[in-house]
Amino acid sequence: xQKKGINGINQGSxxxxxxxxxxxxxxxxxxxxxxxxxxxxxVSVVLTLYIPILTGKAVDCIVCAGNVNFAExxxxxxTMAVIILITAIVQWLMNTSNNKIAYQVVRDVRQEAFxxxxxxxxxxxxxxxxxxxxxxxxxDVDQFSDGLLLGFTQLFTGVVTIVGTLLFMLSINxxxxxxxxxxxxxxxxxxxxxxxxxxNMSKLQSETRGEQTALINEIIDNQKVVKAFGRENxxxxxxxxxxxxxxxxxxxxIFFSSLTNPCTRFVNALxxxxxxxxxxxxxxxxxxxxxxxxxxxSYANQYTKPFNEISGVITELQxxxxxxxxxxxxIEEEPQIPDSPDAITLTDTQGMVTMENxxxxxxxxxxxxxNFNLDVKKGQRIAIVGPTGCGKTTVINxxxxxxxxxxxxxxxxxxDIRNVTRKSLRGSFGMVLQETWLHAGTIRENIVMGKxxxxxxxxxxxxxxxxxxxxxxxxxMGYDTxxxxxxxxxxxxxxQLLCIxxxxxxxxxxxxxxxxxxxxxxxxxxKISQAFNxxxxxxxxxxxxHRLSTxxxxxxxLVMKDGNIIEQxxxxxxxxxxxxxxxxxxxxxx
Length: 590
Description:
- Helices cover 62% and strands 11% of the residues.
- The chain is an alpha/beta fold.
- Among the domains are: 16-29 and 99-331, ABC transporter transmembrane region fold (Up-down Bundle); 338-428 and 540-590, Rossmann fold (3-Layer(aba) Sandwich).
- Helix 3 packs antiparallel against helix 5 (130-172) and helix 6 packs antiparallel against helix 10 (260-284).
- The longest helix has 50 residues, at 70-119.
- 36% of the residues are buried.
């Protein structure tokens, strides 16, 4: 069954027809500019096509040597100069309007794509290459922009030129015009043959480019790992293979598109030769004047020229449509399930969490969490431990509703989180992860992310509590020091301290600490743990840790294995169990 996109377009087929409908939908927002461009194109073509008429009249003014009507010739030349000037102004206005349409449409498409990125479920982000997503929003939209601009600039004028030229030729001689019309279908056949193959190759080229971008993005992000494990040559081989496929697809796409010009020029030559032969015969027999023959030859050349341009535009449009198809496919992906209309906003959260018969798996064929039950009272500290892959972080993802449960329910203060707005739910949690995230900006801007109206005193107090104040003051500009994306030259431990400071500033009613001190030295970790103990008083806290020494003070320790809780209790209770899983796990660390 095909899915419907945001504009009611069938997403499943991905045909040119559906893509064109979506493009026209976006262009429809700028009807005024579109209408203005069409009018300017018509005026430009009419004025351009009137020039050969004047040229023919000028030729007829020269009867023979010594018999030239200079007075009439000068009047014709002045008229031609005025028309050429007006045509230049009209074409400038048309191109300006076309630019306006093209770039505003591209701006809208890219804005829609980025907005969709913000509301896509994490399942999509996790299951798709990040580089390919970036390629769709950046490279494919740029390619679409180039094709759209070329289409507006040449397609309108080309079509109007063909129609206008036919009318002018019919006004001069019907018989010769018929010859031109009979040879015209050859251009359509050639253009259609080339366009179909160009689209397929351009689509493959765009997909391969996305694959290449994904690999480059992955290697840049993990350059240290690549070098550490000596994978440079292997990565170069992998890049070379993708690059080879991109070369092959690009060469084929360029080959088919390059056929357009010589093929259409051949048809143009046939038309011009046919007009020249018949026109010469009619001129000899006196049916048309030499000046009219000159005009007709000029029209024949102008008539065939748009076919050449339109054929080139069509091949460019095929490339643009292939890229647009990838962008629109992304835009029309199913977004995350929206908040229900009657969703409530969490206020004065107490921090009571209940998980009843929760079942969840990332892959339906691979079971993960099964029949998970948990009852957390206000202010309790819940530690979650277990071997890698047992589902610890998955529980956090479900609590934050980054993923929805397959069955069962999770309740906060007795309310199912699916009936709560995501913003208020996530605002009730303070989260420090093993993976830090900082954005380009000042240290202060990174700290106040969750509380933009925080005062300087509050920021400094939070930094002192997180033991980050001392290293921040040593930075060149202190709290106003600008850092690059993901922290720049800051150490992993310093970046994690900033993330802890961010949570210290907000102090929400519930906390999630997922390996929050994994990158911090032991001495600082002891101080941070003391700060955490102060912060966690009266707050429901979920602590995920591999270093079991950090969770001894937890009220309840959940021991997970294969998605199930196999043991639970306090540290002392679990240690006292002979041959218990937690006891063995704890002892193995010492």
